Amino acid sequence: MIAKLKTVVIDAPDIAALSAFYTELAGFTQVYGDDEWITLDGPDGWRLGLQHAPDHVPPQWPDPEHPQQFHLDIYVPDLEVAAQHAEKLGARRIGGGERWITLADPAGHPFDLCQGEQAGMFACTIDTEDPAGLAGFYAEVLGMQRRYDGDEGSLIGADGQMQLMFQRIAHHQRPQWPDPAFPQQFHLDLLVDDVEAAEPAVLALGATRLDGQGENWRVYADPSGHPFCLTW
Q1: Could you tell me whether strands 120-128 and 164-168 are parallel, antiparallel, or unpaired per DSSP bridges?
Q2: What values do phi and psi take at 66, rounded to 5?
């Protein structure tokens, strides 16, 4: 294991409104907030970061020219009741199937409410042309095990970490951070003990170093172009 999955970070122009939405929808608690960043902790160990992006261009799912790049899968015991509750909070219903309903949150990010016996987060699902390959990359970086492989995607997880699902998109349009014409929509924060040791390890697995860093973070792209940060 090179890193631990710390936070799923979502871009939005109004992070206060998005915080209120996910707090009411999925039982998150806001544990930190300022004008640029809000941290939400969930009852089942999930952590969301909401990052202020004033020029955010929302996805227009299912339009491949304005891709979602990711979505959250949330278990609920009653699909229709949960969907109506989400709509009252500001979500828009945009699709669905026999056991799920797809909605867009107030920032335009799609998420799925999925039929389950108990309410809770299931996975952060990431778009890619190569789900098996991207699952292999993150499994190596995060020390996770493969929990499912199929034609539609792959799932990885480990005790004490949030699960990641990788969804096959035939013609995935990659983000080109920081170009707003090809927005990232989200990124993952990965916690490391020693960034100087972790960086060559993730590069060897197929990551690319991007031009962004701060006092305790550096930006990279995974093999499908999604930015992620090594933090310490």
Answers
A1: parallel
A2: -135, 70
CA distances from 186 to 109, 148, 191 (A): 9, 23, 17
Q: What is the pLDDT of residues 194-217, one digit of tens each?
A: 999 999 999 999 999 999 999 999
End-to-end CA distance of the chain: 15
Residues in a beta bridge with 31: none
**Confidence band of 160 (pLDDT split at 50, 70, 90):** confident
Three-state DSSP at 4 gives: strand
* Beta-sheet pairing, 4-12 with 186-191: antiparallel
Longest dimension (CA), the chain: 49
Strands of 117-216, DSSP E: 120-128, 145-150, 153-157, 164-168, 186-191, 208-214
Tell the CATH topology of 4-231. Answer: 2,3-Dihydroxybiphenyl 1,2-Dioxygenase; domain 1 (3.10.180)
Mention every residue, 6+ apart, whose C-beta is less than 8 A from residue 103. Answer: 83, 86, 87, 91, 92, 93, 94, 110, 111, 112, 113
pLDDT, tens digit (0-9, with 9 covering 90-100), for 102-125: 999 999 999 999 999 989 999 999
Tens-digit pLDDT profile for residues 130-141: 999 999 999 999
Domain boundaries, the chain: 4-231
DSSP 147: E
Do residues 47 and 8 lie in contact, with contact meaning Cβ atoms separated by under 8 Å?
Answer: yes
